[in-house]
Amino acid sequence: MAAAVLLVDDERFARTVYSDYLRVAGYDVQVAETADAALEALRRRRFDLLITDIILPGADGLELLTDAKRLDPNIEALVITALDRVDPAVRAMKSGASDYLVKPVTPEALQVAVQKCLSARALLAENKALRSHLRLFETCQRITASLDHDRTVRLALGAIAGEVGASGAVFLERSAAGVLDLAGHTGVDAAQARTIAEAARDPAGSLPSPAPVPLPGVTEGSTALAFPVAEGNVTLGVVLALVASDPEPNQVRSAEFVCSHLALALRTLGHLKQVEHLAYLDDLTHLYNTRFLDVVLEREMQSGRPFTVLFLDLDRFKAVNDQYGHLIGSKLLVEVGRVLKGSVRDEDVVARYGGDEYVAVLLGIDSGGALKVAERIRRSIEDHVFLSREGARLRVTASIGLASCPEHTSKKAEVLDLADRAMYRGKRSTRNVVYIASRDLPPVPTR
């Protein structure tokens, strides 16, 4: 498709010469004599390039350029004038012009300047598209890496709504009985989400048609655009995106790309849910156990992403058991687990390592960021009054060691060992402290 050029000049001869040459060169050219006529043309259609004289009847060409950029920030601009001075050139560039030509302009000079402007526009558009693709890819990575069902759905719905310009989105997930149940929503409240789900279902309760579904009385002026969430021939559910107008084909493809990753994540979560209660959960705290910790460390090592391991041990926990008994001690361990889980993000992994020891894996965080998290955990435990309902009102502290991958090591066994050594250094010093790993720390005595 030929590039669209808007040529603005109050001189009829200049308009004729420049427009004829540009049309011969293959451009789609529209001309305007005044700034007002040019703005009207800009409001009616999209142009790739604006070529304007600086001096126009009734308006400054640079004011026109400012108004054009306000209407379309991506439009390129080329300024042509008879003023052979530096100041107008500087003003033109500050107003958003890509180039500046002084009359008389030869056809060759005009061609070079136009090609330069349009090449810059193409490069900017390509760069913007690449950034958009990268952002979408990173979002899909977070979707597939999440081990929390609700967070996975929230991430996916937010991404899909953003890609197609939807005001909201609803996810209907197929249950084991084959029924489409409301499993998440964004941009609408729970009551609206239920109403949208019912309006979109057909009487048989099957998946909505891919065609837009009118939603009278639910969302004014919006329709529900259905995006199936499927893995192979198995349909896991459908996303209903609330759109006011039909999205572009590339927006639809992006939304479908997110849906494919949501399907993969849901399938993974389904497999995990089947076995986690038997294999991956600690019986006492219901945190993850060392089996799952090993899986997570292996996964993160393979991914190449940075992560940090926090190794936490309660200070003088034996005294609690001796004074209050093992039942109170066990309840304390459960409550410490809840405090620890509430101090990290949903995507981070918290496990009970054994006894009064816990491990947290902070995903995508180096030692600098992890130090702040560890200090927040230490203070949270120190400030918390444990077992208030039981009347014990206990205060405990914890020593925490941290080691980061790949900063301290790139080996799965070593990152845990280095964090353990750092924790032990805290136990041997003041307790209630956070230490960062170092290879010169002594090994931890056999437990």
Describe this protein's structure:
With 447 residues, the chain is α/β, with parallel strands linked by helices. It folds into three domains: 4-125, Response regulator (Rossmann fold, 3-Layer(aba) Sandwich), CATH 3.40.50.2300; 146-274, 2-Layer Sandwich (Beta-Lactamase), CATH 3.30.450.40; 281-436, Reverse transcriptase/Diguanylate cyclase domain (Alpha-Beta Plaits), CATH 3.30.70.270. Helices cover 48% and strands 21% of the residues. The chain has 13 helices and 17 strands. The strands form four sheets. Strands 2-1-3-6-7 form a five-stranded parallel sheet, sandwiched between helices. It has a five-stranded antiparallel sheet with strand order 9-8-12-11-10, sandwiched between helices.
In short:
The chain has 447 residues and is of the alpha/beta class.
Rg: 31 Å
How would you describe the shape?
elongated
DSSP helix fraction: 40-55%
Q: Output the structural class.
A: alpha/beta
Q: For the record, what CATH class of the largest domain applies?
A: Alpha Beta
Mean pLDDT: 86
**CATH level-4 homologous superfamily of the largest domain:** Reverse transcriptase/Diguanylate cyclase domain
Beta-strand proportion: 15-25%
Poorly predicted runs are: none
Q: Which fold name fills CATH's third level, the topology of the largest domain?
A: Alpha-Beta Plaits
User: Number of helical runs?
Assistant: 13
Largest sheet: 5 strands, parallel
The CATH architecture term of the largest domain is 2-Layer Sandwich
Integer count of domains: 3
